[in-house]
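The following record pairs a protein chain with its ligand, zinc ion.
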Amino acid sequence: ARAMEYVDYDWELSADEKVMRDAGFIEVHQANGLIWVKLMYGTTDNIAGYDLYGDLKRAYLHPSAALALGRAQRLLYAQDSTLALCVKDAARPLRVQQALWDALPDPSLRGYLANPKTGSLHNYGIAVDVTLVNARTGEELDMGCPVDTLDAISQPRYEQKFLKEGKLTQQQLDNRLLLRSVMTQAGFQTIPNEWWHFQTMNRAQAKQASTLIP
Ligand SMILES: C[C@@H](N)C(=O)N[C@H](C)C(=O)O
Ligand SMILES: [Zn+2]
């Protein structure tokens, strides 16, 4: 056997990525290479206002969510090949969940974030925050508000009301509905508070099936 076959590529992975890989998580581009990834907590443009990820640059998910995301991208491509999914967050270490919780300006906003005491499905690699982009340029479609807008305008349960009040346009709602359609057909569940958040199982199932990333 040639020496190259024994090269260990661990040095390419950050400490978080090694933990995620050892937990059996899959990097989303292995599920589908057309998916865009722009991890919002790896920039300063997020609800905490600082970079929470450092050298964690790639998006990982538990296989149930990674494979479903690959299916969603294929469904989207079949429907409109000019669009692509864009992952804004995927597996998220628990310490980042705590940092987000601590950075929330107002306790009344905690409906938009899972309590780190119980853990988020993101901490198990079971949840993904995702939007639609132009497949060529990566420009995000108008969903009526950006991902992680901590306001009622983000909540799918109020969309019809906001449409009637003129606070959401039909095009913005159609964009959300297209995203929701491909994600749910692919096997994801929605939540009532956030148009961008999707998950493949509940917390009890996640505790059985997956690993909490510390
Ligand atoms: C903060 C937002 N991106 C998010 O992920 N919220 C859900 C509810 C979570 O923390 O699991
Ligand atoms: Zn989420």
